[in-house]
């Protein structure tokens, strides 16, 4: 080998920072371990797979602790301008904590569902861990290729999770609708990515941002089209209107824990990707995507709340449908600070706006997972999961009713759910500070509209049950709840309730934590 060739080969070789990539790697390895173990465990011991999945997710979350000291990057270019494909900065760590914590709570919710719905344990835990690994990879991705791969690694197992109930028409239909919409989003996004690459000659976000400031005039239209198509692809993933049509049917057809996972972890994946491409890759097009995201936010929150208002309490799965439409409305609130970042005068202002989105996402993750946990509990005795099935819940399960009431008040932004009120005020302030007064007014009106259906559901919990339709009471401490497979479900409700109460006592800690997520 010639000296020049040897020097070139040496410059292209780099070591991998395994500590930086540990969280998604551990989740992926845990998924493979669960899949292999499933081949050898007898049926009566399949529950051990769930505990193994929980241990893997907990270990992946603990792997975040050594990364708190500072930014770490790997898979970097060895020549020219410094650019890396993976960066474990504060933003990535916060979103990874949200994703892995959400997956861990989903695993706790899933124990009873696996038995009740007769889902295959090995496949379920493998798919959940695989999706969590992709979701943990995405916020640390710093090039478009890694972003798309991480997004698909998070999404593809989710399709299978939705359709895992064999022979169930609703489940198959939900999985197909989710799959088709996601494939369409990916196709549109890949077309946009190819346009951006053709115009800039790079896939790294930082280099794309630099190249777009002096793009060849002949390629300017191509670059703009690429940016728009890339953002449209992420709009599908975030369930922003008009790309939200898959949400209600997918949530209804999926097992309740999977619907909870999609509402929190799936949303976190979409929004973190949207933040990365807008703020890091396309800041020079902020005058285009800022107004577009603002309009999407207004449409999304309005359509979600309007559809939630129309839910009939006696309709099958109306409780899950209401949570589905509520998640669409919440997506509109999450889009507001991203739009505000497009109007920011400085990078610091943009980072502050993004911190508002992250703070709201943390609040939403805790209380929404808690609401789905109670829905999973009710579904064990009332599989139709109608809103009317929650009437008299306080008489049968007082602790669960109080927890669900608290979660709904948090989502509504009413005391004692102080964290919900604080998060909404933070998002509202981001819109006002950016000069988006009209969007702040739209948000305020939507918050008032949402109060109706959140409070309506809350009051149902404490009404006297109807004598003719009263189910057999199953107290919170009764046999159905203390059986080993139901203990994790109770733990999930307790954990989310405790987290919500703690955050309501010190809401400023969330904003301070999220505001440190400087990009």
UniProtKB/TrEMBL annotation:
<feature type="transmembrane region" description="Helical">
    <location>
        <begin position="358"/>
        <end position="379"/>
    </location>
</feature>
<feature type="domain" description="NADH:quinone oxidoreductase/Mrp antiporter transmembrane">
    <location>
        <begin position="141"/>
        <end position="445"/>
    </location>
</feature>
<keyword id="KW-1133">Transmembrane helix</keyword>
<feature type="transmembrane region" description="Helical">
    <location>
        <begin position="222"/>
        <end position="246"/>
    </location>
</feature>
<dbReference type="Pfam" id="PF00361">
    <property type="entry name" value="Proton_antipo_M"/>
</dbReference>
<dbReference type="InterPro" id="IPR001750">
    <property type="entry name" value="ND/Mrp_TM"/>
</dbReference>
<keyword id="KW-0520">NAD</keyword>
<feature type="transmembrane region" description="Helical">
    <location>
        <begin position="20"/>
        <end position="41"/>
    </location>
</feature>
<keyword id="KW-1278">Translocase</keyword>
<feature type="transmembrane region" description="Helical">
    <location>
        <begin position="176"/>
        <end position="197"/>
    </location>
</feature>
<feature type="transmembrane region" description="Helical">
    <location>
        <begin position="258"/>
        <end position="282"/>
    </location>
</feature>
<feature type="transmembrane region" description="Helical">
    <location>
        <begin position="288"/>
        <end position="310"/>
    </location>
</feature>
<feature type="transmembrane region" description="Helical">
    <location>
        <begin position="48"/>
        <end position="68"/>
    </location>
</feature>
<keyword id="KW-0813">Transport</keyword>
<feature type="transmembrane region" description="Helical">
    <location>
        <begin position="88"/>
        <end position="109"/>
    </location>
</feature>
<feature type="transmembrane region" description="Helical">
    <location>
        <begin position="322"/>
        <end position="343"/>
    </location>
</feature>
<keyword id="KW-0812">Transmembrane</keyword>
<feature type="transmembrane region" description="Helical">
    <location>
        <begin position="144"/>
        <end position="164"/>
    </location>
</feature>
<dbReference type="InterPro" id="IPR010096">
    <property type="entry name" value="NADH-Q_OxRdtase_suN/2"/>
</dbReference>
<comment type="function">
    <text>NDH-1 shuttles electrons from NADH, via FMN and iron-sulfur (Fe-S) centers, to quinones in the respiratory chain. The immediate electron acceptor for the enzyme in this species is believed to be a menaquinone. Couples the redox reaction to proton translocation (for every two electrons transferred, four hydrogen ions are translocated across the cytoplasmic membrane), and thus conserves the redox energy in a proton gradient.</text>
</comment>
<comment type="subunit">
    <text>NDH-1 is composed of 14 different subunits. Subunits NuoA, H, J, K, L, M, N constitute the membrane sector of the complex.</text>
</comment>
<keyword id="KW-1003">Cell membrane</keyword>
<feature type="transmembrane region" description="Helical">
    <location>
        <begin position="400"/>
        <end position="423"/>
    </location>
</feature>
<feature type="transmembrane region" description="Helical">
    <location>
        <begin position="121"/>
        <end position="138"/>
    </location>
</feature>
<feature type="transmembrane region" description="Helical">
    <location>
        <begin position="435"/>
        <end position="455"/>
    </location>
</feature>
<keyword id="KW-0472">Membrane</keyword>
<protein>
    <recommendedName>
        <fullName>NADH-quinone oxidoreductase subunit N</fullName>
        <ecNumber>7.1.1.-</ecNumber>
    </recommendedName>
</protein>
<keyword id="KW-0874">Quinone</keyword>
<comment type="similarity">
    <text>Belongs to the complex I subunit 2 family.</text>
</comment>
């Amino acid at each position: 080998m010639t000296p020049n060739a040897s020097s070139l080969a040496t410059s292209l070789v780099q070591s991998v920072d395994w500590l930086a990539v540990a969280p998604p790697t551990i989740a992926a390895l845990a998924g493979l371990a669960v899949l292999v173990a499933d081949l050898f465990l007898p049926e009566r011991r399949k529950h051990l797979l769930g505990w193994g999945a929980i241990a893997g997710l907990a270990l992946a979350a603990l792997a975040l602790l050594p990364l708190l000291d500072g930014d770490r990057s790997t898979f970097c270019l060895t020549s020219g301008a410094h650019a890396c494909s993976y960066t474990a900065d504060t933003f990535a760590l916060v979103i990874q904590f949200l994703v892995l914590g959400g997956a861990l709570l989903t695993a706790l919710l899933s124990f009873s569902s696996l038995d009740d719905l007769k889902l295959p344990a090995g496949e379920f835990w493998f798919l959940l861990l695989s999706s969590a690994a992709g979701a943990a990879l995405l916020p640390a991705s710093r090039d478009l290729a890694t972003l798309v791969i991480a997004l698909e690694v998070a999404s593809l197992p989710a399709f299978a999770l939705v359709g895992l109930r064999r022979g169930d028409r609703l489940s198959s239909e939900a999985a197909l609708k989710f799959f088709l919409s996601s494939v369409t989003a990916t196709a549109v996004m890949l077309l946009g990515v190819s346009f951006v690459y053709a115009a800039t000659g790079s896939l790294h976000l930082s280099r794309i941002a630099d190249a777009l400031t002096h793009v060849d005039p002949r390629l300017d239209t191509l670059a703009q089209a690429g940016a728009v198509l890339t953002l449209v692809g992420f709009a599908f993933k975030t369930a922003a209107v008009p790309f939200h049509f898959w949400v209600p049917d997918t949530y209804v057809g999926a097992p309740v824990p999977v619907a909870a996972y999609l509402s929190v972890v799936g949303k976190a994946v979409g929004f973190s990707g949207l933040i990365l491409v807008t703020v890091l890759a396309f800041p020079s097009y902020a005058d285009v995507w800022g107004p577009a995201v603002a309009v999407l936010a207004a449409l999304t929150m309005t359509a979600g709340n309007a559809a939630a208002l129309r839910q009939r309490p006696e309709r099958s799965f109306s409780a899950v449908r209401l949570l589905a439409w509520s998640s669409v409305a919440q997506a509109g609130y999450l889009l507001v600070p991203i739009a505000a970042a497009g109007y920011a005068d400085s990078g610091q202002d943009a980072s502050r706006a993004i911190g508002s989105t992250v703070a709201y996402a943390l609040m939403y993750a805790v209380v929404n997972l808690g609401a789905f946990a109670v829905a999973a509990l009710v579904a064990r005795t009332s599989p139709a999961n109608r809103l009317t099935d929650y009437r008299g819940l306080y008489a049968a399960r007082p602790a669960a009713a109080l927890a669900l009431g608290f979660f709904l008040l948090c989502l509504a932004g009413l005391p004692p759910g102080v964290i919900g009120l604080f998060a909404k005020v933070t998002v509202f302030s981001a819109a006002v500070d950016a000069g988006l007064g009209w969007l702040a007014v739209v948000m305020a009106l939507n918050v008032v509209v949402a109060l109706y259906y959140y409070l309506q559901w809350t009051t149902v919990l404490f009404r006297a049950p109807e004598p003719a339709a009263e189910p057999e009471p199953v107290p919170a401490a009764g046999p159905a709840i203390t059986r080993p497979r139901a203990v994790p479900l109770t733990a999930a409700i307790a954990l989310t309730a405790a987290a919500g109460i703690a955050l309501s006592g010190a809401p400023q800690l969330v904003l301070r934590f999220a505001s440190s997520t400087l990009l």
